[in-house]
Amino acid sequence: MRTTSRDEIRSIAEERDVRFLLHFTQIANLGGIVKHGLLPRRDLAGPEYFAYASDHYRLDENDHAVSVSISRVNEAMFASKRRKSGHPNWAVLVLPAHILWTHNCLFSWRNAATKEIKGHRGWRGGPWAFGKMFAGSNEARSGLAPSCPTDPEAEVQVLDAVAAEYILGAVVNRPEMVEGVQAILNELPGGQRLVVNEN
Question: What are the CA-CA distances from residue 35 to residues 45, 48, 66, 93, 188 (Å)?
């Protein structure tokens, strides 16, 4: 049986014990996400949607993608988005790793807005690009779990909508937010999603 690119991506992810992806968003967006799923900015421009963007425009110039992180959030970018937005209430949604091989994705081993990524001429949707997210010397990867990309700004651009049912849970940064976020996620079908507070 022939191995596909998606099979190879899955193999790399499983070998590295990649278990989840992360997407941060304003709490005000959760109702719409539960109703419509995670959609790229291009789709959110329609009148039937209401969403607060994390920034006025995407520096990577890709309005066709939903950005997610592997195993850890880009803390510097997350802090910057929260500060610039003026909205203090955000959540980090936890998504299953299988999105990496069941959805069309572009893999960015650096921040997707860098010249290196935007100017890259090769295909970033296959196992080579995915594997490159974890490349580097022992020194560069010192202290990192195998499931964490080498560069903390590495990201995945998911080119398909992500169904709301895929949300596994959420992380918030204030204890008083847990109950409200839990109530919103309880509207999803299936089992109860876990919402935790982490400062």
Answer: 16, 11, 16, 15, 9
What is the largest distance, in Å, between two alpha-carbon atoms of the chain?
A: 53
**H or E element in which residue 68 lies:** strand 66-70
Pairing outcome for strands 194-197 and 169-172: parallel
Torsion angle, alpha carbons of 131, 136, 142, 146, to 10: 10
pLDDT of residue 169: 97
Task: Say if residue 74 is exposed, middle or buried (CB neighbours under 10 Å; 0-12, 13-18, 19+).
Answer: buried
Residues of the chain with pLDDT under 50: 56-60, 62
CA distance 81 to 14: 31
Residue whose C-alpha is closest to residue 158's, from 29, 64, 24: 64
